[in-house]
């Protein structure tokens, strides 16, 4: 879907992005992560040509991006940024309808699409359609930003630290919603962040960048288990990696069938993460948990030995 | 790392390419046998002949060449050349005076023509452009102007006696100095009075917030009335007062003269003064005030030791705006007999003597720019941590 | 709800310029009715009502000069500021910004006086002088308005695929409009005052009665001119006050 082939970007004498190659498959959520100044935003902005690359090639669906007019290319991709960039003089509805209007959709279809998206992102139409951006909270504004990016139903979504300015609770909610949205819409998403927890939570493919180069890429678990070097390891949290990995694995992965023993008193949901299970054990001083399904019925059990031990032999 | 070749500086190119035809095509100077007869124009080529003309073009072409690949060193060189050209301009005028003005005619005079004015203007723009590109500080930029000014002073005192402007000055040097004195006195007292009244009003508005809206409405209203109209409207009541109150008349108050001028000037100055003082005191970072109070400073201490020092630069900014504005308005006050440099402007306009107009207008311009620069520098100096 | 407030404000505010304007017209047409008052002010003069031209004509000329200069200044000023904020004109931005800010320290009278030797006496030189001086606040404010737009907004607009023209028309100019309007207001206010002084360099307008009153020592003339110019300034200013959205965004 998106292919970067030996792409380099120089600003004057400095090289911001240094010979990177990256392929993002259809429906994949690719997260670029790294410290500030590592070239991750530059990489993202080269994909919609807000920055022109100096060397190499960038392809969308096998076509060079330079084959398109800049504006045409950008209208095919959604774009959401940290500061939202909502137009302060336009209502929420008009902001969301921006790209469809640029594409000259008929009025009725725009209205319909805007209402559909507002509902999808949990913004009741009657309450929000006529509000102005300054009347929104940070989380609401960012939802509008995402809705605007999705408006013309693009295959590709580019997101530059969209949740960076939000409080932790709102951020987590929006991360979950983005995952759910992705599960339904199967967009190809390139997401830039410097927050490793956010990256691990969202990514299908995690790309760690440093000084304009790609240090390592792959599934988050791959990187956690086999960091390529000390830099990636420290970025991934060093000693904290165990907890981060546990956060990515569901309880069902380590669950044993119910034993004939007495059911443990403390319970954990089957789709909770191992990290949550560990936390319950620590808090309740329990070495054994009963795993329950969506209807709260016991379907298995998880022991502390199993939780940590099973990991050891992997 | 190879340094990239910078793109040509198209601003300098545009300025110089505009200056060249003006210098070559327009009259550089005009010469008249006396004050009454209109002068005859002379182009730059007539003054120093073809070699002189070519010589005058060399530095300009050099700047063009330097601006084609504007590295820092080349721009510095260009700046030097521009300053040199500005400094050479008075000398060139002296040469023209020696060449063209008949020394046998004591009243013969040389006026400065469009070519020189346009050239001067565009060179000054080039100076500003170079100062910006080289990110030189404002004071340094002004200091660079001292070189051409020194050259001008030298040429004026030694060789430029036939310059029409100087002839006008020679005819009324006493009046000129007196006019500058009157002008400065009026501006100074208006700014001083409005500072005292303005700070008082701002403090009152802070204490009685309900008075604030009314106060600003009145001051805004005053600021909207055109100066000529305000001077005119003050004429009648002041004349009436001085006719009835003896001690006012004894003070010299009357419908025309300094009294209505000063009143109007103070009226105009109050708005910027009050607004800046009020905003300055109001917008001191609440965190700072909070911390000061939290550490046990009394209200008075907070005001004297925290609010006032932090607000001072903004208040000074108000004084700067007020001074520049008052220098211009005082010129208008000459119409109602308040004296000052405006007298020459309106006399000159009345007699169609343009050099007399210049004798009034140029010092006013210089005064405004100087007040702006000096008070601006002082503001930067007082700002904690230096200029922003 | 906010719309209701805006409407209420509009309803309240339109009558202000209307009242000032009506007073101005009434003063132009009915100055003769105040003859008794002016006679009391100036008992010794033969004529107490300025009669060299009728006030409506003077008002018309005043408005014409200021209006033409303002229209041209808006076109050139906004155009120049827009040009130097585009990619092609960026090189000129520092110079134009500096020029606009230094130029505003020039007293308008000095500019008017300097225009005469260059351009001569009459109406046209005054229009040119007003135009030049009026450019400065407009350029300065347009620059401030455009440069003051949240960079995220511009980035988003381009990232969504707006063309340069769409960005300018739909985003930059509307967002900068209040600041630009404030610049036009400053420009016009100064120019109404400066045009009056233009009466000394041969433009016939509302400044005439004042100048002639001062020259002939006729206080009544001065008062008539001052009253009309004051009313004109207040009328125009209140129109701008009405156009300007209340408070910062």
TrEMBL record, chain A:
Keyword Transport found: yes
Gene Ontology molecular functions: ATP binding; ATP hydrolysis activity
Pfam families attached to this UniProt entry: ABC_tran (PF00005)
Sequence ranges assigned to domain CBS in this UniProt record: 255-314
Keywords noted in UniProt: ATP-binding, CBS domain, Nucleotide-binding, Transport
Source taxon at top rank: Bacteria
Domain ABC transporter positions: 2-236
InterPro entries in the cross-refs: AAA+_ATPase, ABC_transporter-like_ATP-bd, ABC_transporter-like_CS, CBS_dom, CBS_dom_sf, P-loop_NTPase
GO biological process: quaternary ammonium group transport
Similarity field: Belongs to the ABC transporter superfamily.
Protein name as catalogued: Glycine betaine/L-proline transport ATP-binding protein ProV
Species for this entry: Halomonas beimenensis
Source species taxonomy: Bacteria, Pseudomonadati, Pseudomonadota, Gammaproteobacteria, Oceanospirillales
Gene: proV3
Automatic annotation (TrEMBL), chain B:
Protein name as catalogued: Glycine betaine/L-proline transport system permease protein ProW
Lineage: superkingdom: Bacteria
Record-annotated membrane-spanning stretches: 48-68, 75-98, 110-128, 140-160, 180-204, 216-241, 247-271, 326-350, 356-378
Gene symbol of the encoding locus: proW1
GO biological process, one term: glycine betaine transport
Organism name: Halomonas beimenensis
InterPro entries: ABC_transp_perm/SBD, MetI-like, MetI-like_sf
Keywords annotated in UniProt: Membrane, Transmembrane, Transmembrane helix, Transport
GO cellular component: plasma membrane
Record-linked SUPFAM superfamilies: MetI-like (SSF161098)
TrEMBL record, chain C:
GO biological process, one term: transmembrane transport
Membrane topology, as annotated: Multi-pass membrane protein
Species this chain originates from: Halomonas beimenensis
Entry's transmembrane regions: 12-34, 63-85, 106-133, 221-243
PANTHER family given in the database record: GLYCINE BETAINE UPTAKE SYSTEM PERMEASE PROTEIN YEHW, GLYCINE BETAINE/L-PROLINE TRANSPORT SYSTEM PERMEASE PROTEIN PROW
GO cellular component: plasma membrane
InterPro entries: ABC_transp_perm/SBD, MetI-like, MetI-like_sf
Localization annotation: Cell membrane
Protein's recorded name: Osmoprotectant ABC transporter inner membrane protein YehW
Family: Belongs to the binding-protein-dependent transport system permease family.
Top-level taxon in the UniProt lineage: Bacteria
Keywords annotated in UniProt: Membrane, Transmembrane, Transmembrane helix, Transport
Gene3D superfamilies hit by this protein: MetI-like
Domain ABC transmembrane type-1: 59-240
SUPFAM superfamilies: MetI-like
Pfam families: BPD_transp_1 (PF00528)
């Amino acid at each position: 879907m998106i292919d970067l082939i030996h792409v380099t970007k120089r600003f004057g004498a400095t090289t911001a992005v240094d010979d990177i190659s990256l392929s993002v498959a259809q429906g994949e959520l690719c997260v670029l992560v790294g410290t500030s100044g590592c070239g991750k935003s530059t990489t993202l902005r080269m994909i919609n040509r807000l920055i022109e690359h100096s060397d190499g090639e960038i392809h969308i669906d096998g076509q060079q991006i330079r084959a398109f007019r800049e504006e045409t290319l950008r209208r095919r991709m959604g774009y959401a940024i940290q500061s939202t960039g909502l137009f302060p003089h336009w209502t929420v509805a008009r902001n969301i309808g921006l790209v469809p209007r640029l594409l000259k959709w008929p009025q009725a279809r725009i209205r319909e699409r805007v209402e559909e998206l507002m509902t999808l992102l949990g913004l009741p139409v009657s309450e929000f359609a006529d509000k102005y951006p300054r009347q929104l909270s940070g989380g609401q504004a960012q939802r509008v930003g995402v809705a605007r990016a999705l408006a013309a139903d693009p295959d590709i979504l580019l997101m530059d630290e969209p949740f960076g300015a939000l409080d932790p609770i709102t951020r987590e909610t929006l991360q979950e919603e983005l995952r759910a949205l992705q599960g339904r819409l199967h967009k190809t998403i390139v997401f830039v962040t410097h927050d490793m927890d956010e990256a691990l939570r969202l990514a299908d493919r995690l790309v760690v960048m440093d000084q304009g180069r790609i240090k390592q890429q792959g599934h988050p678990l791959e990187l956690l288990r086999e960091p390529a070097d000390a830099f990636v390891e420290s970025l991934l949290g060093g000693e904290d990696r165990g907890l981060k990995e546990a956060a990515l694995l569901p309880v069902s992965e380590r669950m044993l069938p119910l034993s004939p023993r007495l059911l443990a008193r403390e319970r954990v949901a089957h789709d909770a993460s191992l990290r949550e299970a560990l936390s319950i054990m620590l808090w309740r001083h329990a070495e054994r948990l009963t795993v329950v399904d969506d209807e709260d019925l016991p379907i298995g059990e998880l022991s502390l030995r199993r939780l940590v031990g099973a990991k050891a032999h992997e | 790392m190879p340094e990239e070749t910078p793109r040509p500086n198209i601003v300098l190119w545009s300025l110089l390419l505009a200056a060249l035809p003006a210098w070559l095509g327009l009259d550089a100077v005009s010469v008249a046998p006396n004050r009454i007869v209109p002068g005859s124009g002379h182009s730059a080529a007539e003054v120093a002949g073809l070699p002189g003309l070519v010589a005058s073009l060399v530095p300009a072409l050099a700047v063009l060449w330097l601006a084609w690949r504007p590295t820092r060193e080349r721009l510095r060189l260009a700046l030097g050349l521009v300053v040199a050209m500005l400094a050479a301009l008075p000398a060139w005028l002296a040469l023209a005076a020696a060449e063209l003005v008949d020394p046998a005619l004591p009243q013969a005079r040389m006026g400065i023509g469009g070519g020189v004015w346009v050239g001067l203007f565009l060179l000054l723009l080039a100076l500003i452009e170079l100062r910006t590109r080289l990110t030189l500080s404002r004071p340094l930029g002004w200091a660079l102007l001292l070189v051409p000014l020194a050259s001008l002073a030298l040429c004026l005192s030694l060789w430029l006696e036939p310059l029409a402007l100087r002839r006008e000055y020679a005819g009324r040097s006493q009046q000129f100095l007196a006019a500058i004195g009157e002008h400065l006195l009026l501006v100074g007292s208006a700014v001083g009075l409005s500072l005292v009244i303005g700070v008082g009003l701002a403090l009152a508005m802070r204490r009685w917030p309900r008075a604030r809206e009314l106060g600003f409405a009145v001051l805004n209203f005053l600021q909207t009335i055109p100066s000529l109209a305000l001077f005119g409207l003050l004429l009648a009541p002041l004349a009436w007062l001085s006719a009835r109150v003896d001690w006012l008349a004894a003070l010299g108050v009357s419908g025309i003269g300094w009294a209505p001028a000063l009143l109007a000037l103070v009226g105009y100055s109050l708005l910027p003064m009050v607004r800046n003082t009020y905003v300055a005191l109001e917008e001191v970072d609440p965190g700072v005030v909070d911390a000061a109070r939290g550490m046990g400073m009394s209200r008075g201490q907070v005001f004297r030791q925290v609010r006032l020092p932090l607000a001072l630069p903004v208040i000074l900014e108000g004084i700067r705006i007020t001074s520049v504005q008052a220098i211009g308005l005082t010129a208008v006050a000459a119409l109602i007999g308040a004296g000052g440099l405006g007298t020459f402007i309106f006399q000159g306009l009345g007699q169609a003597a343009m050099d007399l107009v210049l004798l009034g207008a140029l010092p006013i311009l210089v005064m405004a720019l100087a007040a702006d620069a000096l008070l601006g520098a002082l503001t930067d100096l007082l700002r904690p941590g230096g200029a922003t | 709800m906010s719309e209701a407030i805006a409407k209420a404000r509009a309803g309240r505010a339109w009558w202000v310029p209307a009242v000032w304007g009506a007073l101005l017209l009434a003063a132009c047409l009915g100055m003769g009715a105040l003859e008794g008052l002016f006679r009391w002010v100036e008992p010794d003069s033969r004529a107490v009502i300025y009669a060299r031209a009728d006030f409506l004509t003077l008002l018309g000329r005043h408005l014409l000069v200021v209006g033409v200069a303002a229209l041209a200044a808006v076109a050139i000023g906004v155009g120049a500021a827009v040009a130097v904020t585009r990619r092609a004109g960026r090189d000129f931005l520092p110079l134009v910004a500096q020029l606009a800010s230094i130029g505003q320290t020039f007293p308008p009278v000095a500019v008017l006086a300097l225009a005469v030797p260059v351009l001569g006496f009459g109406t046209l030189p005054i229009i040119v002088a007003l135009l030049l001086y009026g450019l400065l606040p407009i350029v300065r404010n347009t620059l401030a308005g455009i440069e003051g737009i949240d960079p995220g907004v511009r980035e988003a607009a381009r990232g969504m695929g707006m063309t340069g023209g769409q960005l300018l028309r739909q985003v930059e100019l509307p967002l900068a409009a209040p600041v630009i309007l404030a610049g036009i207001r400053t420009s016009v206010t100064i120019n109404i005052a400066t045009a009056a002084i233009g009466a000394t360099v041969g433009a016939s307008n509302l400044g005439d009665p004042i100048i002639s009153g001062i020259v002939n020592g006729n206080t009544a003339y001065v008062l008539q001119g001052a009253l009309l110019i004051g009313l004109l300034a207040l009328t125009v200013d209140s129109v701008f006050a009405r156009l300007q959205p209340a408070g910062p965004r």
